[in-house]
Design brief:
about 20% strand; four-stranded antiparallel beta sheet; PH-domain like; single chain; 3 helices; 2 domains
Length: about 140
């Protein structure tokens, strides 16, 4: 299942990109090439980021892994079976595994999709508790 970006976050990316692009175009009108090329480039990159985020969304949650979609980088993923700890702090949830970690910013998630992430966290925490009970039982025998 896909966890979408909040509409506010997407709207902000679009408006920033559009404003920088318009400022770049105004720089062409006023014969200032440094401002025009710089602002146009930043605006185009921001608009590319907006369209990527709108198409790919923030997270993909499946039965056994969590994938964080990142533009201009390789997507980060973590296998739920490898997770050893889930840390919650303010607007951030960190999934820790022996050789990797994945940080998820809750403020970027659409409110109506937050339940998908909460269900994934609950399932990971259930498996972690099972592992703790299993390890305790093995230590006592």
């Amino acid at each position: 299942m896909k966890v979408r970006y909040s509409k506010r976050h997407l709207r902000t990316d679009f408006l920033l990109g559009a404003c920088f692009f318009v400022l770049g175009c105004l720089g062409f009108l006023f014969q200032n090439p440094f401002i025009s090329y710089g602002f146009s480039a930043v605006g185009i990159l921001n608009l590319i980021q907006y369209f990527y985020k709108r198409k790919e969304q923030y997270l993909e949650v499946s039965n056994d892994e969590l994938i964080l979609n990142i533009i201009f980088q390789k997507n980060k993923k973590i296998d739920f079976n490898e997770v050893t700890c889930v840390q919650k702090f303010a607007d951030e949830i960190t999934f820790l595994a022996p050789y990797s970690q994945l940080k998820v910013n809750i403020s970027l998630i659409a409110k109506e999709d937050l339940w998908i992430l909460e269900n994934a966290i609950a399932s990971v925490e259930r498996t972690l508790k099972k592992d703790v009970f299993l390890n305790d039982a093995l230590k006592t025998h």
